[in-house]
Structures are given as structure tokens and as C-alpha cells.
Write a structure and sequence with these properties.
It comes from Malaciobacter marinus. The protein has about 375 residues and is of the alpha+beta class. The chain is built from nine helices and 18 strands. The strands form five sheets. Strands 3-6-1-18-11 form a five-stranded antiparallel sheet. The protein has a five-stranded antiparallel sheet with strand order 4-5-2-16-17, with no helix packed on it. α4 packs antiparallel against α6 and α6 packs antiparallel against α7.
């Protein structure tokens, strides 16, 4: 018997502005890219068609984060699964959809849809103080993980970088500048990269992709006593900065199956969580064949220290954690991609065709 489950937000029937009071209409722009505060709304559709066999199939799908800059209006899912539910019962409060198919299922299909509205995220850095009296929820992001550890190697490295810095914000700026100057995009890296900060620093392997760049940035911040975290998500629409940062057709439709992208943010008292994206500086520099001396890169590295262009959908900031329900293989490095197991074997989530998934996005223009 085919089973169908749905989750519907009570906000679905409301108007956009009624359910998102923190998203304000404004065309004000203070950046060289023409990015405004005007909200952008997207409908994202994730389709899964997993392999059928004599094994139990289990699938964990990352769902969008609800925050001040990104409001989830609706989530729904439909499929021929034997079990499915939404959960956030894990260390990082990461929202995900879990689905299970029994052995010898004739079909393993699932469609997940969500409507999200967001706007450019901008921080007021002038409000930053030098206090380190952090709340417990912020202190969580001072702790090391397997891929972004707090250890002597990284602590000494960060201390040397920031030895002339007087404030938390100055330290963060120095670490950001070092990351942008020294990390570079390596197109041969699979997916978003592994993000092993210690290996990158110790072996001076500064090439990588977004998770590698963001993880080095985050790890050095934590080792300098600044709370920081990676945020995993996917590009969903056209960027005003560069096609390297997201693209869509003239009707706002985009095929985003390979659009996963890892950003970062750090915490400074007074200013709160501050967005940053050193990885996209390295990507635009590489793909547009620019250098650090080019005006566009100078503008971009300045913009991405305290701002995000929100043509990107945030999922979560979990690292080295255990999914719920617990999988056969754990802990999981990150949940930017869907994760699935056939009995105890992990399905290759870096290969959408082999895995059996595709993502699309439609911007509501």
C-alpha cells in the first residue's frame, strides 16, 4: 500500500508580508553590485528516485533553516515510502526529512517542496564590542569538531595571524583576509570538498572548494576565541554578482542539482552573527580569471565580510554529528547534500545520477 505524508505550515494561507514581519520591502542598495533589500521568494522542488533492490533504503534530506533573514513559508512532501517524518532531534537542531523504504520495494520515489522568502543579509559592524561573555548557545561554536578542531597547531597559527589585532572584529578581519589571499579554488575537488582544516593548514594544501575554504576560516576563528560556524545550503537563483554565484533563466527557473554551497558566519558581541563568504571570493576570482588587484575582487571581498546575497538557501550548520534516526555510518561530516544508505552502505551523494536526485528552483518574480 502506498503511504503519503504531508507537513503543512499554518503560514501557507497568509500573505507574504503577514507571515514574514522581519522581511521588509526596500530597494536601498549600498554595494557596487546592485543588490537590494527587496525580498526574493523561491519554490524549491527536490525529487528522489532511489535504486530498487533487496536492501532497506533510508534517506535523510536537509530542510531549510528558518531565521531572521530566511523565512520558510511551506514544506510538503509526497512519495511511496513506508515511513517518513520531519525531525530536528540532533545536537545542532538541524531540520531534516527522514524516509524509509523496505526491502524489495517496487519503487522508491519522494518529492519534497518548500517555499522560502529571504533578503540580502547585512550586518552593522559599527555595533561590535570586544566582550567575550557569550551565551551558551553561542559557546557551542567555540568547540572543535573532527574537521574543524581546536588544537595547538591551529591555535598557534591563528595567534600568529592576529598578534597585532586589538579587537575581536579586527581578528576576524585578519583571518578573513588571510583566507581569501591564501586559499584558492581547485576545480578538481569533488563536490564541495571535505573541509579538513588541520590537514589543509599543516600540509599547506590551500586549494579546495567552498567547504574547504569556509572550514579553514571557521577553524581559525574558533582557535582565536571567536565563535564561528559553516552554513550549508544551495544556490537557488540568479546572482547579481556573477553567474559563478548562481544563475537562472529569464523566467527565474533554475536547475540547481549541483548548486550546493557552504558559507560561514562568526559571532561578535554587539553585532551578533556576522555573515561571510570567503569561498565565493575565490570562486569568482578563479572562474572569471581575475586577481586580487582587480576592482571586482576588491569590492567582492569587502562585501562578503558582513553581507550575503540571498539567492542562496541555508539548510544548517551541523558538523561531525549524528543524524536522527541514527544511520549505520556516523558521525556525518556535514548535511549539505541528501544522505542515504542501502542497508549499511552509503550511497554516493556527490553523484546525483547514481544517487537518484534532482533539484529545481523557481523564483516568484
Amino acid at each position: 500500500m502506498q503511504r503519503r505524508r504531508f507537513l503543512k505550515s499554518a503560514a501557507v494561507l497568509g500573505t507574504t508580508m503577514a507571515v514574514t514581519p522581519t522581511i521588509v520591502l526596500s530597494n536601498t542598495t549600498t554595494n557596487p553590485f546592485g543588490i537590494t533589500k527587496k525580498p526574493r521568494k523561491f519554490t524549491v522542488t527536490n525529487s528522489y528516485d532511489l535504486q530498487t533492490n533487496d536492501q532497506v533504503a533510508r534517506l535523510w534530506v536537509p530542510l531549510p533553516l528558518d531565521s531572521s533573514y530566511q523565512k520558510v513559508l511551506k514544506i510538503s512532501y509526497d512519495g511511496d515510502f513506508d515511513e517518513a517524518f520531519i525531525s530536528n532531534n540532533n545536537e545542532y537542531n538541524t531540520k531534516l526529512l527522514y524516509a524509509k523504504w523496505n526491502k524489495n520495494s517496487k519503487s522508491r520515489k519522494l518529492v519534497v517542496k518548500f517555499d522560502v522568502i529571504m533578503q540580502e543579509r547585512t550586518s552593522n559592524l559599527s555595533k561590535a564590542t570586544n566582550s567575550t561573555n557569550f551565551s551558551e548557545d553561542v559557546k557551542l561554536f567555540l568547540k572543535g569538531t573532527s574537521h574543524t578542531p581546536v588544537n595547538k597547531t591551529l591555535t598557534d597559527f591563528a595567534a600568529n595571524l592576529t598578534k597585532n589585532s586589538k579587537t575581536q572584529l579586527e581578528k576576524a578581519q585578519v583571518i578573513y583576509d588571510w583566507t581569501v589571499d591564501n586559499m584558492y579554488r581547485d576545480e578538481s575537488v569533488i563536490g564541495c570538498g571535505v573541509g579538513d582544516a588541520t590537514r589543509i593548514i599543516e600540509k599547506k594544501l590551500f586549494g579546495g572548494k567552498c567547504t574547504d575554504v569556509s572550514s579553514v576560516f571557521v577553524a581559525l576563528l574558533r582557535n582565536a576565541g571567536i565563535p564561528a560556524r559553516e552554513i550549508f545550503g544551495v544556490r537557488v537563483g540568479q546572482s547579481k554578482i556573477s553567474n559563478s554565484c548562481g544563475k537562472a533563466n529569464d523566467k527565474g527557473f533554475a536547475k540547481i542539482t549541483g548548486g550546493q554551497h557552504c558559507r560561514a558566519e562568526f559571532y561578535v558581541d554587539g553585532a551578533g552573527w556576522i555573515p561571510a563568504d570567503p569561498a565565493d571570493v575565490t570562486k569568482v576570482r578563479k572562474q572569471e580569471k581575475l586577481t586580487n588587484s582587480d576592482k571586482k575582487i576588491k569590492d567582492l571581498r569587502k562585501y562578503f565580510f558582513g553581507n550575503w546575497e540571498m539567492n542562496w538557501l541555508a539548510f544548517n550548520y551541523a558538523r561531525d554529528f549524528v543524524l536522527n534516526p541514527k544511520p549505520a555510518q556516523y558521525p556525518l561530516n556535514m548535511l549539505g547534500y541528501p544522505y542515504a544508505e542501502m542497508d549499511e552502505d552509503v550511497v554516493n551523494y556527490y553523484n546525483p545520477k547514481e544517487f537518484g536526485y534532482s533539484y529545481t528552483s523557481q523564483e516568484v518574480l
